[in-house]
Structures
1.
Amino acid sequence: MVLMNTLLWTALGTGFIFIMTCMGASVVFLFRKEVNRNIQTVFLGFAAGIMIAAAVFGLLVPAIREAEENGFAGWLPASIGFILGVLFLLALDKIIPHLHPGTNTKEGISISMKRTTLLVSAVTIHNIPEGMAVGLSFALAAQNSADSVLFSSAMALALGVGIQNFPEGAAVSLPLKREGFKTWKAFLIGCLSGLTEPVFGILMVLLAGFIAPVMPWLLAFSAGAMMYVVVEELIPEAHLGEHTHYGTLAVMAGFVLMMILDVALG
């Protein structure tokens, strides 16, 4: 019964962040001409700020607290899990063939694939950590059902990730349109990029249900994967062009918003 309730809440939480991705991708219908680079900079920076705060307040802090309650040194699973998450995303980055919007440089294993497929692969890698984070947060709340704060924190994390998925969905679809994709196709790809979130969210719940003692490690793992995406992709892309301070301020705004959500709702 507990597992079913957890899966239900995870499905609702990850379904919400998926819908927000689609809503963000729909912004592409509002632009008939070239999209202003500053708009994309703000979107990317805002998403980066929320992900940084989510990784720290929504994942690493609970990981440390959970480890200490189980008699471990809090820094041990937090640091090792974080590093493993980074290495996991790095491995995916090196193995899975993909292409980032706005570039012509293919990454991953060299293989003959359509440009559209390579672009979809890039955003798929990008969204994996977010689904993991939301799924693990609800799994942790289910394992400690007497602690209502953990459930509130999971809700806050889902809300924060959902909010950042709006600009993130736009940050996927808008560059695709700029590259010459038809508007509906750019929207569809941007929307589908969020499908990995419900899938990995539910997988994490099922995994955590069988190996509850490693929850702190999984939380830190997810945090490391999220931070890899932020540092490798979001922040660099938010600082392309002339007015990079727009991206910087957007990062700060996203961080503050996610911090407020976590503290106020948690």
2.
Amino acid sequence: MQPRVLLRIVTLLLALFSLSLFVPAVLAWALDEPTQRIFLLSAIGMLLFSVALWFPVRSCRAELRLRDGFLVVVLSTFALSLAGSVPFMFTPGLSFVDALFESASGLTSTGATVVTGLDSLPRSTLIYRQILQWLGGMGVIVLAVAVLPMLAIGGMQAYRALTPGPMKFNRLTARIVESARGLWYLYIGLTAACAIAYWLAGMTAFDAIAHSMSTISLGGFSTHDDSFAYFDDPVIEAVGIVFMLIAGINFAWHFIAWRHASLQPYRDSQELRTYGIVLAVVSAITIVVLSTRSVTHPDEAARHGVFQAVSMGVTAGCTTTEYHRWPSFLPLLLIMVSFIGGCAGSTGGGLKVIRVLLLLKQAGREIRRLIHPNASFSVKIGDRSIGIDVIDSVWGYFALYMVCFCIMTVLLAMVGVDLVTAFSAVAACINNLGPGLGEVAYDYAGLGDFAKLTLCMAMLIGRLEVFSLLILLTPEFWKK
């Protein structure tokens, strides 16, 4: 372990994060809101604190080893979640646990919230929530595309076989720094395009910017309690669907397509085809059920059905209606599809389409082996064979994911949370979805502190890809 190098990296990230607090501080000053002192003091205090810790280790530079990589990922996430909670601690009605929950939800782009009365909150607080999600979304992309493949987490090393061109050796370009810079440019560009589209569709400039941040990050935070239902505009919803679909696609493909002015990365991807099929099937089922059960007019069924299917499928969690009140199995279906989530390398949560695809192909392989025990079958994505080490890693990831889900559901039930709420709350948090069913259909404010802390852990486990967090709990990791 290299603690001084780790401290330098984490404190540098904290210092950079503190700069983001100046944005709501300036907005609060411009609008003469009472939160200006909160954000300004939080920004200055956090910056001074992080610089004070960084200064003694500023010259400690060394190449990070594998174990250091895991520690950087986990420590930086925990540190930023704690730092992000500071301004929320001064929000009336929020406890420390509430503040930590809101911060963790934002930085993991989950979208679960304990804050109510959004329409009456200062705009500086509202934009701060959106900034948290936006930064969290970019962090997810950098982790998924540039860091996790090198750590071989849960099958993410499949990039070595599946990604064409400049990503062949786990990097978009020759160096990780350049890769991250290219992804930032793309991420900012898509956010700007989404904001302009929302504004042209009828949102105010403030709402357009705020919702573009949560749409591209697939976080789901809104500036209104009713989310997209507040606008009640099919054009705005159509814009949201388009950009949620884009954000749910591997950003490495976007980068390569943009850099080479070619659609080939999309055409070659079996994961992308599966992603489209899943969302299309769920949308069709939702529309048919809403129409045949006379829940709403067929036009409205199509409008709300497609939006909710896409939003829940890519784990954005935005809503245009009270979907949890829909009849039959639809609310459960929408929660379950979030387990699939978006493509690997996207801002979406869940298991990721590529893992689910590999699990299904491996299951099919085992069935064929039962029929033809002496035959040799390989698991392929497109025309490329996937190594058994990747398949084993994916199965291990899936098993741990489900074990964590079951344990945390039982923990919530143990403290008196009803089963529907417990099941959907853990599913929504570990999949980084946001809204659940039952008591958490609107917000998580009614849950106790133990339940909220458990769900914070669920968000972090889901966003950090399970292995990178749980590996720190094994004795072997700490042995020299």
